[in-house]
Amino acid sequence: MAQHSTKPPRVPQGETTGREQNTTIARALLTELFEKGNLDAADQWVHPDFVNHEAPPANSQGPEGLKETVAWLRSLWGPMRFEIKDEICEDDKVVARVLMHGRHVGEFLGRAPTGKDSATKQIRIWRIEDGKAIEHWSVRDDLGQALQLGLIGG
User: Fold this and answer.
1) Domain ranges of the chain
2) Could you say which architecture CATH assigns to the domain 18-148?
3) Which helix (H) or strand (E) holds 66?
4) Would you state the torsion angle of the CA atoms of residues 104, 76, 30, 152, taken in this order, to the nearest 10 degrees?
5) Residues 24-43: pLDDT tens digits?
6) Residues 6 or more apart from 35 whose CB is under 8 A from it?
């Protein structure tokens, strides 16, 4: 019987694994696009056939669609900051549980900006192909965010 090693494969110094590369891409998307507002980074990190499953049906897809979405989100929340709480990478997917920090500076849920800060729980899933993000899904705590901002309940 063949013996199976329980040690992970050794990666030669200076080389990255697919897992490391995929995690780097997912983090670059959050940092460069969403946090810094560097929309041109989409051309580097986003696949031409990119599908954002969270965008409304009429929204553009591909890198240009993500640029539009990020510009819109930054008009709502200003410069956002993503605090990664957990990150899981398996095969071609990266899943991140994050806390998105932002300030309410644009109309949200039909309500005028409050100028208040919020920290919103989110789950983001990126599928990576050919070194670029090709699909994105997310789950956001919009109710918790609206409560923090005083837009509902109280």
Assistant:
1) 18-148
2) Roll (3.10)
3) helix 62-77
4) 50
5) 999 999 999 999 999 999 99
6) 79, 80, 81, 82
